[in-house]
């Protein structure tokens, strides 16, 4: 009992993900970062190139390990990085003191991503890099937004679309993923959940949840059909 409580507190998730899926995720991340490193080195020298790629490494985790997650969708990646880049450069220029500017860049970026509905955690690193980077990075000014940030975003999104397209269950973006038709309900019926009901429930939680509304509805429908199938089984097993 104590062990399960610790696991729950730490948030350890034991998802039934196959070894093949894990290897595919790793390979996709490798290819994306390899291309980005080659491109970034043409615009920024030395340690600053590594700083810029660090935020893209975080994006790669989302795009290739959880390609259907809400935080990994194209608008989140594009908007999250670009908005954060602008904020980071502005903070570096107009807020005195590196410590204060660095903290402000991340805080303001989080707020902006919230309001623009493009929350992407690596965006915080993009904003921070614009402040704590070296001279070669600061010399870019607002062109940091275009090269290398926008260019790197374009590369990682292109790799995500093309690479995940090789596997029918990993279509990216999530809107392209094929959904198998759900089996019809038989026996006990469950109350349907309308879109408005789901929106209301999410508003009561009042926190960002990294899953789309469509996926939440699908999870509910799959669960009720699984329960229904269990009730129809005379042995009581699924």
Summary of the model, kept short:
The chain has helices at 2-10, 19-40, 46-65, 74-94, 98-115, 122-132, 135-138, 146-164, 195-205, 213-232. The chain is mainly alpha-helical and 238 residues long.
How would you explain this protein's 3D organization?
Helices cover 65% and strands 0% of the residues. It has 238 residues and is an all-alpha fold. It has two domains: 19-175; 179-232, no CATH class. It is globular and about 65 Å long. 30% of the residues are buried. Mean pLDDT is 84; it is low at 233-238.
Principal-axis shape equals globular
Please tell me how large the radius of gyration is. Answer: 21 Å
Q: How many strand elements?
A: 0
Identify low-pLDDT runs: 233-238
Question: What is the succession of H and E elements?
Answer: HHHHHHHHHH
* Mean pLDDT rating: 84
Largest sheet: none
Could you tell me how far the N terminus lies from the C terminus, measured between alpha carbons in angstroms?
26 Å
Helix content: 55-70%
* Structural class label: mainly alpha
Number of domains: 2
Q: Count of DSSP helices?
A: 10
**Beta strand %:** under 5%
């Amino acid at each position: 009992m104590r062990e399960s409580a610790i696991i729950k507190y730490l948030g350890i998730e034991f998802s039934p993900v196959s070894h093949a899926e894990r290897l595919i995720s790793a390979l996709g991340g490798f290819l994306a970062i390899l291309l980005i490193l080659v491109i970034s080195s043409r615009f920024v020298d030395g340690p600053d190139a590594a700083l810029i790629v660090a935020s893209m490494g975080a994006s790669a985790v989302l795009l290739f390990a959880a390609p259907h997650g809400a935080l990994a969708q194209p608008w989140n990646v594009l908007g999250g990085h670009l908005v954060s880049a602008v904020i980071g450069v502005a903070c570096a220029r107009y807020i005195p003191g590196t410590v204060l500017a660095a903290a402000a860049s991340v805080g303001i970026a989080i707020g902006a991503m919230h309001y623009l509905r493009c929350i992407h955690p690596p965006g915080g690193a993009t904003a921070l890099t614009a402040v704590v980077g070296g001279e070669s990075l600061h010399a870019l000014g607002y062109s940091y937004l275009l090269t290398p940030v926008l260019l790197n975003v374009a590369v990682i999104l292109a790799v995500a679309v093309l690479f995940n397209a090789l596997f029918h269950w990993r279509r990216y973006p999530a809107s392209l993923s094929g959904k198998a038709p759900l089996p019809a309900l038989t026996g006990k019926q469950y109350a349907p959940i309308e879109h408005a009901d789901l929106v209301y429930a999410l508003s009561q939680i009042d926190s960002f949840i990294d899953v789309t509304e469509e996926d939440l509805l699908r999870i509910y429908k799959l669960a009720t059909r699984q329960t229904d199938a269990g009730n129809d089984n005379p042995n009581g097993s699924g």
